[in-house]
Write a structure and sequence with these properties.
Low-confidence stretches: 1-29
Largest sheet: 14 strands, antiparallel
Order of helices and strands: HEEEHEEEEEHEEEHEEE
Number of strands: 14
Number of helices: 4
Number of domains: 1
Distance between the termini: 35 Å
Shape: globular
Structural class: mainly beta
Helix content: under 10%
Strand content: over 45%
Length: 271
């Protein structure tokens, strides 16, 4: 879908789908927890838009929804917006998605994606425009669709109760992700810890480096795939959700072929 957008707006819509593209407790939380996180998004050093995400954790269920839109300056050229929603179950230290819905509109271009899950694997994929694979694409096998999470669910990290505050326990993990077209592994590793303060949050945050490992649904010889596979300038920063075992996206930085896309929360509020 992103290939149909202008170079300036690709990061905005892409991050709306993967940034909350770029992460369940050891035990389910008895009390309902609601997190509101709001981000300012920049590209090539310019403020291009905002993204909002709403996460609800209730018992052994979770829901993540939100959207992104271009700001007034960028909208003069291309009015872009995206919406996303994911839900599923909390199974010990794992998120098990049950559904994903995402859509975008940029000028005259638009698209929608829905995915359904059953027995821990992707059961259905519906996309408009229809997904088409070009010659040379590594086939997506049935085994590639088992025990995967969607890009939206990958914005929520679990840790065991004894590992709260441990940056390595927060970051060091490999997430198998299927985005409707391609299957990939996102490899996270601990980089640093620091303190942050924004509306609704004050405390320690943990920054993780991110590596992209393509598995299938991609063309290995494609320039952009080679670039992202070799990319060492990607990171996410995670913050604890209230007093739970969850960590959620607080900031991100991704170098693209055209420049750096980044985002940082200006509100991270739990109630």
């Amino acid at each position: 879908m992103a290939n149909q957008l202008s170079p300036v707006m690709r990061p905005l819509c892409a991050m709306a789908l993967i940034a909350p593209f770029i992460f369940a407790p050891a035990t389910a939380q008895a009390k309902e927890i609601n997190l509101t996180s709001k981000f300012r998004i920049s590209y090539l050093g310019l403020n291009v838009g905002v993204m909002k995400s709403y996460t609800k954790i209730a018992g052994d269920r979770y829901t993540i929804s939100g959207g992104a839109r271009s700001n007034s300056v960028v909208s003069i050229f291309t009015n872009a917006k995206a919406q996303f929603s994911s839900s599923g179950e909390i199974n010990d230290t794992k998120l098990v998605p049950s559904s994903l819905s995402a859509s975008y509109k940029a000028g005259k271009k638009s698209g929608q994606l829905t995915m359904g899950y059953a027995n821990g694997k992707v059961a259905s994929v519906e996309s408009t425009p229809k997904i088409k694979y070009k010659p040379g694409t590594v086939p997506v096998k049935k085994t590639h669709l088992q025990n995967v999470i969607d890009p939206v669910s990958s914005g929520l990290f679990p840790v065991k109760s004894g590992d709260i505050g441990n940056g390595r326990a927060v970051c060091d993990r490999i997430l198998p992700v299927f985005d409707g077209r391609s299957r990939m592994n996102l490899v996270f590793s601990y980089k640093k810890s620091s303190t942050a303060r924004v509306k609704g949050f004050r405390g320690k945050v943990h920054t993780c480096s991110v590596r992209y490992q393509p598995v299938s649904g991609i063309r290995p010889a494609k320039k952009s795939v080679k670039f992202m596979k070799a990319n060492r300038d990607m990171e996410v920063t995670m913050a604890r959700v209230g007093k739970t075992n969850f960590y959620a996206l607080f900031a991100f930085r991704v170098r693209t072929e055209k420049g750096v896309a980044a985002g940082k929360a200006y509100e991270f509020k739990v109630k």
